[in-house]
Amino acid sequence: MSDRTIVIVASLTLLVAVGAGAFGAHGLKRVLSSDMLAIWHTAVLYQLVHGLGMLAIAALGARFGSPLLGSAAALMFAGIVLFSGSLYLLAASGVRWLGAITPIGGLAFILAWALVALAAWRAA
């Protein structure tokens, strides 16, 4: 992924996260149980944090110039889709097996951050 693409995807990811957060706080407050609403909020939090992480990766691209950063951004986006996406679906539908997908997204986050660290290490 190019730095420009990363910024675009990260910005759209953050836009959706803010909307999802507002929707959860206002639209779902009376519809979901407190447990399911907490799951929704966890999805929003991880989406926000990792969307910002993608912006940081784009900023680091100019400094380190490592192709690992593009891979890290792609993994981070995959993590957002799998982790947050599965939690949104779980909270909205109550289908518990969707929670089995969530750790795959978490693993993508871990691998993405490891690639960022490796890119910085190699640049030194």
UniProtKB/TrEMBL annotation:
Gene Ontology cellular component terms for the protein in this record: plasma membrane
Keywords: Membrane, Transmembrane, Transmembrane helix
Signal peptide bounds: none
Main location: membrane
InterPro entries according to UniProt: DUF423
Record-annotated membrane-spanning stretches: 38-61, 68-91, 97-121
Subcellular localization, as worded in the UniProt entry: Membrane
One Pfam family linked to the record: DUF423
Membrane topology: Multi-pass membrane protein
tRNA-binding recorded as keyword: no
UniProt family annotation: Belongs to the UPF0382 family.
Protein name: DUF423 domain-containing protein
Organism expressing this protein natively: Candidimonas nitroreducens
